[in-house]
Each structure stands twice: as C-alpha cells, then as structure tokens.
Amino acid sequence: MSGLSRATVARLPRYLRLIEDTNGANDMVSSDALAAAAGVNAANVRRDLSDLGFQGTRGVGYSAPALRDRIRRELGIEQRRKVAIVGAGNLGSALARYSGLSKRGFDVAAIYDIDSDRIGKLVGDVKIQDFDEMPSDCSFGCFDMAILAVPATAAQSVSDDLVGAGIASILNFAPVRVTVPDSVAVRQVDLSTELQILSYYG
Amino acid sequence: MSGLSRATVARLPRYLRLIEDTNGANDMVSSDALAAAAGVNAANVRRDLSDLGFQGTRGVGYSAPALRDRIRRELGIEQRRKVAIVGAGNLGSALARYSGLSKRGFDVAAIYDIDSDRIGKLVGDVKIQDFDEMPSDCSFGCFDMAILAVPATAAQSVSDDLVGAGIASILNFAPVRVTVPDSVAVRQVDLSTELQILSYYG
Prior knowledge:
The structure is a homodimer.
Chain A: H1 6-22, E1 28-29, H2 31-38, H3 42-51, E2 62-63, H4 64-75, E3 81-86, H5 90-97, H6 99-103, E4 106-113, E5 122-123, E6 126-130, H7 134-139, E7 145-148, H8 152-165, E8 169-172, E9 185-188, H9 191-201
Parallel strand pairs in A: 3-4, 3-7, 4-6, 7-8, 8-9
Antiparallel strand pairs in A: 1-2, 5-6
C-alpha cells in the first residue's frame, strides 16, 4: 500500500469505472473525461495519477488499459475478491443479489445468519450458513472481506468474531460504529449521511 | 444554499453525528473531537466551520447545540424530511426498516412498487403502494425526496417519472447512473466503490 491521500483513494474507483464502462482495450482516456467521472477538475486527476506514478501524454491522454490495470493493482483487486455477507435479512439478501458487486470484481462466497429459519435457504445461488461455521470457512480461505448487514445491537459482537477469525476488511452497514484493532480496515456505510448530503443539494 | 465545497458538505453530517450522539444540550465540542469524527485534521474543521460563518472560542471549542442547529439548517434538515422509497424488493424493504433513517430525521412516507404481488403488503408500518399513485402523492406533498431501489434496467425510467412528478432529490442505489436535469440533485450510492476503497486499506 502506498501513501495515497484518502481523497485520491476514493476517486480511483470512479476513474476505474469510467474506463471499464466506456473504454475499449486500446483507447486513450483524457484527464477531462476522468475529471468528469470523479466530479473534480483535470488538475486533480493529473495530481492523483502522478501520485500513482502513472504518466500520460500531453494532448493525447492516458492509456486506458494500462491505467485500468494500474488502478486495479493499487486497489488490490487485480484478482476477484471473495466476500462474506453476515446477516441474511433484507439488506444482506439485497447485497447478495446486487449485480454491481460481481460486475466490479467481488464474489459473494458465503452468507451467514444465526436464525435457524434462514439457515439452509438459498439467496440467489448461495446457501445461508450458520454463523458458527464462519471461523472455519475463513481459515480455509473462503473469503477475506466481510460485509456486516446485521442489526445495530449485534454489530460489535459480529465484528469481534470476524476479526477473531482473521478478517482484516469489514464494510459495515449497521447504523452504529464498530471498534476494531488498528490492523483492521472498516468502512462505515451510513445511508442517512447520504440523505443529509443530498438534502443540501436538493 | 451557500457555496460550500463538496468536501465540506460531506463532512457536515459527520460533525452533526458526533454532536447528536455524544453532546448534551449545553456542552462545548472541540475541533479535535470534530476532526476525529470526520477523519480530518483540526485545521480542516476550523476552515469548514469558518466557511459556515460559525465561530468558536479559542481554547474552549464550539457550542455544541448552536453548531448542531447551524449544520441542520445548512443541510436543510431543521425539520424532519419525508422520503419515498421506490422498489419494495429486498433493498427497498431493508431501507424502509433501516432505523438509522428515522434516527437522523428522515421519515419513510411511502414505498412504491409495480408488482401486484407486493402492492398492499406492509413493510414495517408502511403499506406498499402502486407506483402509478406516486405522482398524485407527490403533488400532495407527501414527500420531497426519493430513494431508488429498483433494478438497473428500471432506474432511468423511474427517475424520469420522479423528476416529472416534481422530485428534486434522488438517492440512487441502482448500479447504474441516471441522467437528470441540472435542477435535480442525484447521489449515487455504489456499494462496489465502497468495497474497492476498503480493499485498498484492508
């Protein structure tokens, strides 16, 4: 991991998306197009890509396939990543079926719950498993990232279990912050924050 | 709406959250505490609040209740906001039940679908209505923001209908961008972007 700024890291997926969605394997992509995709100006783009050590050609742009590969490598998604979803309620089920994940390189390798009425049922083509099986699945390398889709009251305990099993990357949808060791990366997806920001602009 | 930077606007909900969750009505809050909540440094905080025209007291901090009210006013959430959810599948149902919305001042006023098997059923205590009823509900002021929780293939058409009915704020969870007039604010929640950013840090 290099020392990119948080803002730069947050823009890389947007650059990547533009290239994946619009550019052929031999195309060039301009800093203006990348800027529009990320909602910044072209100078920001040039600085971000310079921080990646990636050079363009003045007046021509950047090689789209080379930039795509460079960003994927930087983000650690050259290979597809395997994700476990914890919580097979509405949100967990929605996430398991969310086509955007597979399209962007993430495979749902497992989905867990503690409710015996849910365990054994299918979500898409993944069978809901007992959360008690999570540590052993994890130790066999079934997945290395986890999505928390559990109630707020369960989030910390489930997070502790995931960290205990060796998971170092957690995306938390529960409307509460979880505390993890410094070695673990957590991102909090707070839907009300999105609505509040939207409220400013709308 | 003042001319705050996008980054400042995105931090306001985090400052607000800290105050709502931890400060009593008469407390002071320090720029260091606000900085930690938003993941920036104290100089950023001071600049953000200065851009809001909000002054603190050196060595003491900011008045928490006054700052809370100022941020709420800036974000346009002094009063509770009424939100419609379009799409009563797993994601829409999860959002309708998401306790974080109500906690942060958003009420789910309506949930719509086009599937006759779903229409009339309850999600929490909100009855799923036929999407055909949306324009008339909207004209009666039932809600003024909408959340898109529909498949990618339906997102643009539903967005067009919402804009046609007068909605000016849309939060889009469909894994596809929608095109709207300049007068309409859209935020795209892309779950795979969150996983990609997490992948960098994890």
